[in-house]
Structures are given as structure tokens and as C-alpha cells.
Amino acid sequence: MKLLVKTRSICPVCQKPVEAEYVEKDGKVFIRKTCRDHGSWEAYIACCVKDYTDWTAHSVVNVRPEKTITKGTDDRCPLDCGICDKHLQTACCVLMEVTKRCNQHCPYCFAKSEKDAALEPGLDEIGRKYDLLLELGEEERPFNIHLSGGEPTVREDLPEIIEMGQKKGFVYIQINTNGRRLALDNEYAGVLKEAGASVIYLQFDGTDDRIYQTLRGEPLLNIKVKAIENCKKARIPVILVPTIAKNVNLHNIGSMMEFLLDNLSVVKGIHFQPVSFFGRYPEKVYQNGKKWTDFENRVTLFDVMREVEKQTGSKFKYEDFRPSSIGHTLCSFHGSYINQNDGTVKPLINDKNYDSKACCCNTTPPDIMKKTRDYVLNKWNLPEQENYSACCDGNTSESHGSTCCCESQTMDFDQFINEMKSNMFTVTGMAFQDRSNLDAERLKRCRVQVLSPDNRLIPFCAYNSLYRK
Amino acid sequence: MEKKQKLICDRCKVEMVDKEVQFSYLGKSFRHKVKRCPECGQVYISEELVKGRMSQVEKMLEDK
Amino acid sequence: MEKYFKQFESCRQSEKPFCTDACPFHLDVLDFQEKISRKSYNAAYRTYRNAVAFPDIVAELCPEYCAAKCPRKDLDQSVQLNLLERTCVNKAVKKDPTDYNLPAKKGKIGIIGAGISGLACALRLCSKKFNVTIFEKTDKLGGQLWNLMPQEIFLKDIERQFKHENYTLQLNTSVDDIEQLKDQGFDALYVATGKNGFDFGTLNREKGQCYINGDTGVFAGGSLTGKDPMFALADGLSMAWAIEVWLSTGKLEYPGKRQPSKAVSNQDKLWRLEAVIPTDNGLFTDEEAVEEAARCIRCQCDACKTYCDLCDFFNKWPLQMRDEIMTTVMSSESMIHKTPAIRLINTCTQCGLFEEACPEDIELSDMIKEARKRLHKLNKMPGAYHQFWLRDMAFANSKFAAVKKTAPGEKQCNYAFFPGCHLGAADPEYVIEPYKWLLSKKPQTGLLLRCCSVPADWAGNEALHGEEIQSLREDWQALGEPVLIMACPTCIRNFAEYLPEIQTVSLYEVLEQWKFEQKSVKKTKKIYSVFDPCSARHIDPIQQAVRRLAEQSGVTLEELPKGDQHGCCGYGGHVSIANPKFAEHVAKKRSALSDNLYIAYCINCRDVFKGENKPVVHVLDLLFNINTQESVLPDVTQRRENRVRLKETLLSEIWGEKMESKPEKCKLNIVIRPEIKEKMNTLKLLKEDVCNVVEYSQKSNRRTFDPQKKTYLCYREIGHITCWVEYCQAGDAFEVVNVYSHRMKIELEAVWNGKKTEADL
Fold first, then answer.
1. Does the model's pTM come out above 0.80?
2. What is the DSSP track for C9-43?
């Protein structure tokens, strides 16, 4: 066993901060920690030490938050979140829970949804929350907003919430939804678009109903497809968000990628989230005669990236993925592509020879955060021309004497202009931490933060593992 | 309107028709429909196209 | 590239302003000022409270340490920050602190003395949920505040800020000995016993005013250590930090002095603005606060944004430019590798003003020059950006335009005139007159008429530049290694960099030294300003020579507002094809430096200003009466014709020779309408290019006929651009109706309809 790097974590049982270390064991990487009262714990990080070391060698930028709320100390992280003055990364996206109610019941759900409406913030309170976020965010460009729940679409005033955010100056507001309402109410996507929603962040766990049966307790594929169709009609972009669990839908990734490519006229990306085990800690079990202390369904980002390559017949390559330019390497991966008409995809990052120094000292902090926040906004802008997506259905646009994209492999000028504006899509992933694999260094660099009911900004993983009441 | 106008290939004395032609700039290729002679393949590109979308694409490629 | 990359690390853009530096609390004045300007008093209050802990108390007592550092101090009056703070404290309505439900922290801290310093320390530690006990020997909180201000102000502030905090307060408790607290289990003590108070042995220890007593860290600060009230309060806050460090690491770290700010105040933004007099019972009204806040010039280091045209035009800070440039020139096999800075790299005029302005000696223009070389090597340089000037250079160095001769009857020369290639292109007289004069003074003076090769350098084409430099060296050797008398400062700079073995002297110094005498002195009342080209910045001998010559000729001179500290006229670096808007922007900016008429001594400056309709003369105009204000600029075609004419005239007038080879004339009778000529000049298309297209069209019949307009349309490739010509035939004349060009290449199929196509365009 070889020590790779030291960090700090918490005891999964009593949540006491403890020292932790990444270690190599049989070529694999684990995070290990020991609590005086509850013994040693190990969580699985990467199946191959080279993947881990190469990946963590990528440099990422951290831009400190301008304003912090609480005071923290290095050895107590993550017990003083708020965010604290020791936090190294300002939020790119802030999650705001608008309800705890839900119209579904999923065994793996992050937010343990409750049926009784009861306490959810009113419009006034949400307005105050927006104001607070404006105050906390950088002046140049406010945070991106992620409205979640529960299921936000159960609130009848969701359009007003979105509109209010837009009016206050939040240029990017994404709606996290299971898609049920979008599917059942044909007008609803248009209503959200009209209100100013930027993107539908659609839970989408695969292309096979058995997956939904396992993960969500009911077959939902038709609902998802219908929801996407309605979004297409309303011209509001969609990002597919699968929760990936071993033995459930890890094998379905290739099929999901195909689904993505088939629906690029409205789906602008896929965002894999390996399942995490926020509220729980693993039973100590034995596997192959060895003590195994992590969840057996644990999937890592490396697993997902490797499976994407494997299951798409190398159409997408592991080498084309990079950590996001800000935050922490182990938190996310990212790949941007342009879809080619010959059935291939072109990766937009190719920085094999890129000097690692060149990206770590990137630009001035406000600019890089603005860019990062704008990036998600711009890549999802659907083309202006209304009939562009109809082009491939046979309606050749006559107006410029230009050709239809089906006719040849290379583009004409209009297509290129459109493509530069819209034909990009992304394949991304984010690994949430739970009590087993929590790493204080990652938390300090977290760029996805939750605005808690008591108006603190809490790194997403810390919120779900420790703070959610 | 320019696109309605008749154009004749002076060598083949036939009317030019809309056909694709291949272009390249800074390592990127395009096919765009312009007036061409069906016999000899001669190309005509209007100033409107040059000043409009073609220059837009040139700029985009330069700034990419 | 790596050398330049590192330089940017010292960029001072994020240095704090002087007021923040002087403030005991290091208040973020820029943030505060900005919020006041927006009348966001609540937000400004929060910024203020986060820095000072007790806003009402500090606003009341602060003697404005910042005022002494404000650059307005010596001009009118320092920004009245304290008045702004009082106004803010008065106008803010949401003053209660936020109640955060934080978990309790381990660590028991005792604070001896409930004065301003002890309370500040207690507040910070309480808000982090440490266990805090305050010991106060009297029966009340506040210490010296009772003598300094009305009690209702400070008691209310203390009460408000401690609203959500829990601590133990032991009044009437005098601590005389640390041992007295021994069994209470304090992890740290803060001794803030005030002026002449008991120090418990803390003062002047090895690590500052602190020591370790058993398991307890004992710190002292505030008035006890001789500080005035504001610094005492700030001490309490920084001691809270020191105590936290002690609790978490077990190490004593007494807060030290900070590095002084390296910000630079921008004198350009500083003009007289009288201090605003508050009219609202000693406080500002909303409008007054905004007005006073606007007096702040927000000191930061922004020299580059002020001086460098590139930073200004792209609105980018150096670090961002550096990173975009690095990304662009990193080699990569992929065609879609990002190249965000191609245009930026080709927009730099190489004026060098960035380097003059930057206090950290970052060399942006050198980095950009290097980046152009990289771009060229990587084959990522858009060919059209520099093609025109490279062709121009080739023509200037061709047998049609270049002259390399010793004086008539001489085999060698000690001096040779090097006019540069643009001087004669603008007007042959600019070369002929001075050369004749030189010959009259020193009849052995030779002539080397050709390009100095800077276009290849600016295009990043090292190989070509190397060849040209070598050929220049050979020409110079063939003439007997003379001293070159240079008319163009840019040529001088290029020679100094790449041909240091060649001794050069400017024509203007020679005119003086060889005793130039004005034929007729015409006194004029107009006031002129000499516009020094970037390449002559700081070159005092040339600058002075030009000024003296100009004055001799009878004009009155006035210096430009900043002398030679201005950027390029827009010609440098050959940026006008890559970024025409920028070139125009710069030319306009330079034209507006002064209303005076300009005197240029770089022909490119003259041409640019003339193009902008800015009244300008070349100094040679004054000396030799060559051009007047009214003369028209030659277009790109005429410039070539001028070069040929220059050579022809020189050969015949000086050497009595006939010019043997001249450029081929167009075989056809081409007529070009004036408006089309203008368009060609803008597109930088030569008449030769247009002739080429028409000739090919006529020869090959490979052209399109428009029956309605009765015009022919044809194109040919000219290097990296494709040139289209629309023309009609009238008798034997060919009238050009339209021209246009693009950079996109038309890729004809090798085979069309089963026949090989003539893809010989």
C-alpha cells in the first residue's frame, strides 16, 4: 500500500473531522481514514492509479469568493460551512430549493422528498434570497441559478420565480426536473421558456424502462421522451442528467450517448452523476474474501469516462475529457464536442501539448468566473433561425440558395455559422461526495453551492452529507 | 433580386445553375451552393455572398 | 515565450489602493466607494462592518489615516472617507448582524479588559462560536470609549453587534496575576488592559507581544501596547486571528506588518474636484454622498489600460492577454485547437508604450512579436494579414524599384543614403531632393534604396526576414560598408536590432551637422507639434534635430501634451488588415492629441494622419518645399508607380543612366472608375492585380456573363486572397465596374463532367 496524498475527511458515523489519505492498493486508489471511536473506513476512488495520478495532475484554477459568511479553520472543514473564509472557490452555480414536495418517489433521490407541502419559501422570501445572492456574487456577473427541490414544477408559481430571477439580473436559470409535468402538460415547456428559464436539467437515467423501475420505482422512459419533445417544440434546451449506479445503468451509457446524438436539436449535453450515498454509511461487508467497506454500487468518474469510450466504440475518447477548469480535478470531467454530419464528433478540447502553467494562472478572477458562468449559458443557445432544425426533415431553406446539411459532409457557410453558434454539445460528469469519500480539499474548492434555508452558501456535497435537515 | 438573374458561362454559353462548390480557409472546408456552369464547372460568387456570410465565416475562423 | 510568461506574474493589477493600505482595518475602500456610489447603504454598511466590527464607533472616532495617503491630498482635499462612513452608518437601515447557526468550536478564550480592543477580539471569536469569557475590573463595558464619545452611541453598537453572540462577562473582576486564571482552563488569553494597564509579562517577547504560559497562549494588544483607539480596535480583530492560529496549530504568530501596496495612482484621472460640503446636519445627502464618492479616482495599477492601445481597445488586463496568447501559440495537431488571440497578436502596433508604462517591466510587445513568429511556424497565421506588405517589400526590393549604387564615378563610399521604401513611394521628391543635397555636401555619398525588411519581422516570418537581412548586409558590404544615413526611424530601429554592425545616423542629424540651409524661410503663425514616431521615442538626438530643423524653417513649435509618450499612429506592426477598426481607432486617437498641425518625420505617420484628414506635413516638406497641405495621398498602385519613377529619375538625373527593365504594362486598355479605384485602395488591390484578372478572363473565356448588365465576371487567386473583377467591354477598352476579394479559397474539382478542369487559377 502506498500513500498518494494526505487530506482530511470526516468519520462517516460521528462526522468528527479526521485525517485521511489517498492510497494505492493493488493498483487501485482508495481514500482511507480512521475514527478513534468508529474504526477505519475506505472508499473506492479509482480503478487504476495511473488514471488517478494523470487526472489529478491537470491544473485547475480556483477563484476565491469575494464575500464569505462564516469563519472556518482548516482542521474543522466541513463543519463551519457558510461559506467560510477558508473556502477557495466562488460558486459557479447556486442551488436554490424552492420546495420539498415531489411528484415521484425515488429510492436514490438526493433530496428526501416529503409529501406535505408545509414549509416552502414564499415569493417574497425567494426574492430576498435572490437579493442575497446578488450581494454575495461578483458584481460583474451573478451566479448561475439552479432551481431544484423536491420537484420545482409542483409549485404553481415556478414561472414567477424564474421571471423574478431574470428580472433581478440572473442571466442563467436552470430548472432541475424529473420531466413529469413537462411531459403531461404540453404547454408547460413554453411557459417556462417564456418565464426565462435557460435550460431544463432533466433527470434521465437511461433508455431502458428497467432502469427506471430500479432507480425510480416506475417506468418513466416515455415520460422523458415526451418531455424532451415538448421542450423541442418550445425551443428550450435540455441537458440529460443520468444518475449512474453499478449493476443498474452503467452498461446503458452507450445507449444514452446515442440518444443524445439523436436529439441534438434540443439536447445540448449529458451530465453524468455517479450515484452517491449522502445520508448513509456502508455496512462493512466482505467481497472476494477481502474486507470491503465501500458501497458495492459505487461508480467513479473514471469508470464513467472509460465506459463512455468503451460503449461508444471510441467515438468519444477518454483522452478528450478534462477536469473542469475551475474547482477540483476529482469533482468533475468535461468534454465539448461539435457534431459532424458524417456521424463523427469532434472534440473541442485538445490540449495535449498545453502548458499546464498556462491554464492555472488564467485571467483575472472576475473574468474567469464570468467566462465560466457564461460558458454554460452560451453553449446552450439554440440557433436563431426557426426553421434550421427542420432543415434535415426535407424543408430546404430557399432564402439564401444554400443547401441542406444532408446533402454533403462538409458544411455550407450558413451551417457553419449556425454550428459555431449552436452545434456544440457537452459530455460532462460530476462526482458528488458522501460521508465515505468526503475530502476536505475538494469541498474547499467546491463551485456548486446550496443556498440553505438559513441563508448560508454550503458546498453541495457538504450540504447533502451533513447540513440537510 | 440577384438570385433571380440569369448568368451565362461565357465559354460554354450555357446558363449557370445552383451547384455546390468547395471552399477552404484556415484548414476548414465548406461546401456552399453558388452559381456554376453545369458543363465546365466554372464558379461565380456574388459580392453579396462575399461581403455577407463568407466574410462572417472568415472572421469566425480567425477568431476561433 | 516562457521568459515573457513569467514576467506577468508580478503584474500589479490586483494591488490594494493606498487608503486601504493605510487603514488599520484594511477596509476595502474600492468596494465601499462603489456601493456608496450606487446608494447601496446597506451593502456598504456590511462591507464596513466586516472590516471594522463596530461601525458606529469607528465612524465616530476614526481620524482618517487614509486621508494622508489619498492622492487628492496635495491637489484639493483627500476624499472624505470618514464622512462617507458616517453617512453610510446613518443611512443604512439593515444594521443587525445575521444570525448564523454554527456549531460551537473547541477553544476557551479569556479576554482581560472590556475596552474597545478586548470587545473587538471577543466579538470575532464569539461569532466563530468559541467559548469566550471577558474580565473587566470596572462595572461597565467600553473602557476608554466613555471618555471619547457619547455613551448611547457605543453602547448601542456593542449591544447590536453582540446581539446573537453568547459570552461570559465578569464585571468588577480584576485579574492581577495569570495564575489566578490557571484552573479555569483557558486555551488562550488576550490581555487588553488598556493604557498603562498590567501586561502580564507579554510585552516585547521574542515573537511579539505574546508568549506561551503552560498550555495557554497569552497575547497582548490595544492601548496597552501604546496604540491609539482605532489601531487598538483593529488589534483586537487581528489578535482574534492570531488566537485562532494558536488554537489550530499551537504556534504563536503575532500579526506583522504588511507589505506596502505597490499600486500606482493614475495622475491622468486626477483633476481638481472640490470636496463636497455636507449639508444634512453634518452628513451627506444621497446626492452629496454620490458626488463625494465620485471624487475617488480608485487608485489601482492600470497604467497599461491607460497607455497601451491594445489593452484599451480589447479591454483586457495583461494576464488575460498573456493566457490567450499562450493558448493560441501552443502547438497542437488538431485544427480546432483554440486560437482566441490570433487577431489580438496581429493587432499590436509594436509601439512599446506598454513597456514604458508598466512599473513591473512586463514586455507585452516583445511577447507578441515572439507569438507572431510562433503563429507563422505553426502555419496558423492567416496569410491575408501580411501578404500585401510582403508583396510590397518584394516589389521595393525588386529591380524595378531598388537602387544600390555608389556615387557617380566612385567605387566605394563612406556614407550612403538609406531613405527606406515608403518615402519614395509617397513622393519621389522626398528621396531625390535630400539625396541631391547630400551629394552637394559630400559627393561620394552612395545610395541604398530598398526595404529595411521590417514587414517580414512584423509578419513573424523569420526565414524570410533572415534572408532579407542577409541581402541587406551584402548590399552594404558591396558599397564598402558605409555609414547609412537613414530617413526612417523604424528602419533605424530594425537595423539596430538585426544589423548592429552597420553604423547608422539619421538624415535629420546629418542635415544639421552638414549645415543645411533653408532656401527660403517663410514665417507662419500656425503652431505645429512634432509627432515623434514610436521608433524615435527617447532618441533625443533625432528628436532635437527635427525640432531645430523645423524651427529654422520658420514654424513655431509646441510640444504634444505628453511629449513622445503616446502610442503609434496606427501603421506600426501592419495591423490595418488584421484589425482595420483598431488601426482607425488609434489613428483617430493620435490625431486628437492636439489641434495643432503635426510635423511627422516618419512617412508612415504622415500618410496615416493625412488619411485621417489631420493637417500634417513631413519635416522634409518644410525643408525642401515638397508637398503642401493640399496634395493628395497616392493610392496603393500609385505608390508602386512612384517607386519606379523614383528609380528612373535617380538613374537618369544622378548617374545619367537609362532604366533597363520596367514592370510589364497591362496589355489591355483598362479603364477604372474613380470610385472603384478608391475601393481597390481600401481592399489593397493593385491595378496590376485587376489587369491580371481581366487579361486571364479575356484569354481563357473562363468568365461569367451577365446578360442584363452586359458585364463579365471573373476571378483569380492572388496568393492568399481571391480577387473578383466585374467589367464591360467598349471597343478595345475594358471598363472595370466592380472589384471585391475574399480570403476563402475556391477549391475546384480536378475533374468535372469527366473532363479535367483548368484549375490553374
1. no
2. GG--TTPPPHHHHHSTT---HHHHHHHHHTT-HHH
